[in-house]
Amino acid sequence: MATSTLQLKTNYAVLDKIEPFYKGGKVQISTDENYIFCTCGTRVNVLEIATGKVIQRIEQDDQEDITSFTLSPDDEVLVTASRALLLKQWDWRESRCVRTWRAIHTSPVASMTFDPTSTLLATGGCDGTIKLWDVVKQYCTHNLKGSPGVVHLVQFHPDSALLQLFSSSMDCRIRVWDLRTSQCLCVLESHYSAVTSLAFTPDGSTLVSSGRDKICTVWDLKSKTPTRTVPVFEAVEAVVLLPQGADVSRIGVKNEGLHFITAGSRGVLRVWEASSGRCIFTQTLPTGHPTGKAESDDGDEHSFTCCHPLPSSSRVAAVTAEHNFLLYDLPSLTLQQQFVGYSDDILDVKFLGPEDSHIVVATNSPQLKVFELASSSCQILYGHTDTVLSLDVFRKGCMFASCAKDNSIRVWRLSPATGQVCCVAQGLGHVNAVGSISCSRMKESFVASGSQDYTVKVWELPESLRSKEGGGVEALTARVTEKGHDKDVNSVAVSPNDKLLASGSQDRTTKLWALADLSLLGVFRGHRRGVWCVQFSPVDQVLATSSADGSVKLWGLQDFSCLKTFEGHDASVLKVIFVNRGTQLLSSGSDGLVKLWTIKTNECVKTLEAHQDKVWGLHSSRKDDLMVTGSADSCITIWKDVTDAELEEEQAKQEDQILKQQELSNLLHEKKYLRALGLAISLNQPHTVLRVIKEIRGEEEGQEQLDRTVLKLRQDQKEALLGYCVVWNTNARNCQEAQAVIQALLRHLSPEQLLQCKGLRSALEGLLPYTERHFQRIGRLLQASMFLDYMWQHMRVTGQDSVAVQDEEMDGGLPLFVVDKQPSYSQVVMEEEEGTEDTMGEEEDGASVDHGVGSAKKASMGTVGVSRGAKDAQEEEEEDPEEMEDDDSDVSAANKARVGGADGARQPEDSEEEEQKENVQPSPASEEEEEGEEEQQWVRRDRRPRKCKTGEVDTRPAPRQTRASRRRR
Which residues, in sequence order, are CB contacts of 731 under 8 Å at separation 6+? Predict the structure, then answer.
């Protein structure tokens, strides 16, 4: 019952991301000590120290890598130099480029700095020249030549009144330049390797220089001579002077002389006394730190690359070669805060802590990283000597286990009070890399591991580890070992009741074991490629597996059969977990996608995209409201379940839509078209907008009212309305409304106002072709209507059925006959001829009959006679067509047939009329009238049906006799 009422998850949203922000290069800290500026390819990132978040990303438009940058002492001006030999001045708080100019250097700028007044900018190039720029007046003030090779260090004297610049290049010498004369005052020679940093005392009388030749030199700037050379026995990258007057007795400073801190290849900070050249303090490294074990090793990944003083907060900031930022408390040089600039590939990630306040991350390195989610501060855990491959967390969340390529497993414990993590146990026994590990679910009693040596081991945890009093690193022993597969074991999982163990291997099989003695219970076969992950359901006797064949399968533990298969990933599925009380699955693959599945329907509910590479890590929080993913693109993404929020938002949106729809109906009823149109546009309902426009056009003076309404809309509403018109114009039903709106816009808006509309170009491209099509259609319709009108004016509709007409005449009724008001010439001749016959008949009978009706009767009778008497003429025509054409008897026969009855017999009245007509002599007529009459007769003859040889009636017209042939006759 609980499952049926369970709300299924539908979506996750990105809550936070931990991205790489530093990949090497220069690092600078603002004067107010709130921000860290560092380079990352084509960007300069601004990291806020208090929160550990990147608040600004200053991106180069030309996508060229930044070779150097500097921030002015007043924290207002940021200048960057790129490989395109351009200098750019930025308002970094708004990420806006203020000015761009050419660097004049013939090669990229290697170093740059501001003077104490923030007005002069010095740039040192790879071409051996130094140029000074006035950033206020925007011109180049000096061009200093004489440095051989790359000028990798430039720095102003702290006393701006002296106008002196110090530089160092490839010849390992320090040059002092007088900016008044643009001449080199002197050359300080002491180092035999590259000079890495310069540190001035506050009064500017003493200078301390460091180099990779493992010495530091103290200079008297008044005499320009070295007063002390201090061998430090490591390549020094940075030197920082201790503040005078501060209480630093905790690090061995007992007098008020000059002391300085060195940061170099050993990865530790050391304090030196300038007067005696002694090292009075060496920083203590955490347990398991490789540099602490081998201090003579130089140039490893743990060495420092730069160091900066933070006098206002009494701290020192150092940067390691692994791109980590370390903030130390100055009185004791203890680590306070740490940020990770770059993490390389993320291989696994898990939530940690009773309230999921931390995450532990396994990267492509031997160190583990534990991030505090609130501040993004990171702890680096040393212990493993090779890459960590997998992680798992115990039920309470304060202990977790890790395994690595060094053939070992380790157990770690988080102190909830201090947030510090330490290693409490270590297990050795595998003979190859340990690729997976799983912790017990009921209590912290054991861990299981799977290795590339094809074996599965179960390790017992002593009681001392579960107590808070336990200290030190204890050794673990394997309780049972079993060779489980023929290839690498990629994943192991412990059941929720701690009774079963599942293992997935590269040999494409998954096996089920009894945890007590690792006896084999069954084998799951069905994947076509290696199995990457196995996971037990938290509520059902079901096992989920993901494989390199791109599928996720569910297996029944009773009969080891495949229950369901989920296919959707385009590549290997690397991780799968159960969520929402076992009703749904989350899977991640090497395609960079995370998919949410509903088990009951086999449906992929949502596909989440936030990574650009393989997603190796996937874990859900204890409350099941958060999810964390880690990818090979060095990004860690924290997701939040937004199902309830989206549901509430959708309900609120629906309620708002209902209210607005009601308001819209009221406005239309009240004929408040302007507010109705604006409301419909705000609702983004094109159909409703179209309905409002139709309502407006249906009113009196609709176009004028539409013009007034459209012109009162806001600019954004006009743009939205123009976009709707593009869609409406594609349909002939709605094109009139679209054209009416366009007419209103074009008629009342100037071209300048139209050009301000967003998307005008795309709107025109969509309007033009369909508008031309509509005009062509209207043109064709107009032509067709004019042709119909012409035909109506010049066409006579004949009777419906000749037989019906004759019957109707015999019954004394009038025929269904329509005569055109404007008859043609042939019709006039026929009517004159028939009118003469009717007149003669009337005179004989002495009856008063309407001439129009008599003419109609005669015409109908003539038509019937032609239809009935055509057979004889047709037979004669078939026997001898030429004789029929030349004989005048056919014409008289046709005239007789025209007035004949249906069967060729005459009525008594007709015979009398015919006798009268024969006795009457025709009135003389012109030649044209005779020819017209003959032509009309021949036309009638042409319409007679002819009988073919097959006995069927041939409806083709007979050959028409020309005037010349008749004259020859």
Answer: none
Cβ contacts of 362 within 8 Å, gap of 6 or more: 346, 347, 348, 349, 368, 388, 389, 390, 391, 402, 617
CA 6, 9, 13, 15 dihedral sign is positive
Residue type, 763: A
Would the pTM of this model clear 0.85, i.e. be above it?
A: no
The pLDDT value given to residue 902: 36
Cα–Cα dist 586/574, whole Å: 11
Q: Which helix (H) or strand (E) holds 934?
A: helix 927-942
At 885, give phi and psi (nearest 5°). -70, -35
Left if phi > 0, otherwise alpha if psi is -120 to 50, otherwise beta: which for 144?
Answer: beta
Q: Give the containing element (helix H, strand E) for 686.
A: helix 686-698
State which amino acid sits at residue 277: G
Let me know: does 461 contact 444? Beta carbons within 8 Å.
Answer: yes
* Lookup: tokens for 685: 């309902």
| Spans of the chain, pLDDT less than 50 | 1-4, 292-299, 798-804, 812-955, 958, 961-966, 968-969
Instruction: For 140-152, give one letter per residue: b (16+ CB within 10 A) or e.
Output: eebebeebeebbb
Non-local (6+) Cβ contacts of 809 within 8 A are 815, 857, 860, 861
Q: Angle formed by the axes of helices 715-728 and 735-748, to 10°?
A: 140
Q: How far apart are CA 212 and CA 454, in angstroms?
A: 48
Contacts of 401 (CB under 8 A, 6+ apart): 391, 392, 394, 409, 410, 411, 412, 437, 439, 447
Backbone angles phi, psi at 246, to 5 degrees: -80, 150
> 333, 420, 339: which is closest to 378 by C-alpha?
339
DSSP alpha helix (H) spans, 129-281: none
Distance CA 271, CA 242 (A): 9
Q: What does the H/E/C string look like for 340-368?
A: ECCCCCEEEEEEECCCCCEEEEEECCCCE
Alpha-carbon gap, residue 682 to 660, rounded angstroms: 10
- List the structure tokens of 235: 């390549």
Residue type, 500: L
- Alpha-carbon distance of 491 to 510, in angstroms, equals 9
Among residues 290, 288, 294, 302, the alpha carbon closest in space to that of 426 is found at 288
Residue 624 token pair: 């099941």
Residue 256 has a CB neighbour count (10 Å cut-off) of 8
Sign of CA dihedral 608, 609, 614, 617: negative
Measured CA to CA in angstroms, residue 628 lies from 19, 620, 654, 726 at distances of: 13, 6, 32, 44
Quote the CA–CA distance of 431 and 483 in Å, as a whole number.
12
Place of tokens 């005239």: 895
Query: Which residues have C-beta within 8 Å of that of residue 223, sequence separation ≥ 6?
Result: none
Q: Report the distance separating Cα 292 and Cα 382, nearest Å.
A: 11
Which residues are CB-neighbours of 316 under 8 A, at least 6 positions away? 240, 261, 269, 307, 308, 309, 310, 327, 328, 330, 333
The DSSP-derived string for 940-969 is HHHTS-EE-TTSSEE-SPPPPPPHHHHHH-
| pLDDT tens digit sequence for 593-632 | 999 999 999 999 999 998 999 999 999 999 999 999 999 9
- Phi and psi (nearest 5°) for 361? -130, 135
Cβ–Cβ < 8 Å for 637, 586? no
Give the tens place of pLDDT for each residue, 291-348: 544 444 444 667 999 999 999 889 999 999 989 999 999 888 888 899 999 988 999 9
Residue type, 147: S
Number of other CB atoms surrounding residue 708 within 10 Å? 15
How many Å apart are CA 771 and CA 785, to the nearest integer? Answer: 21
Q: Write the single-letter amino acid at 398.
A: C
- N- to C-terminal Cα distance for the chain? 110
Do 123 and 103 meet the contact criterion of CB atoms below 8 Å apart? yes
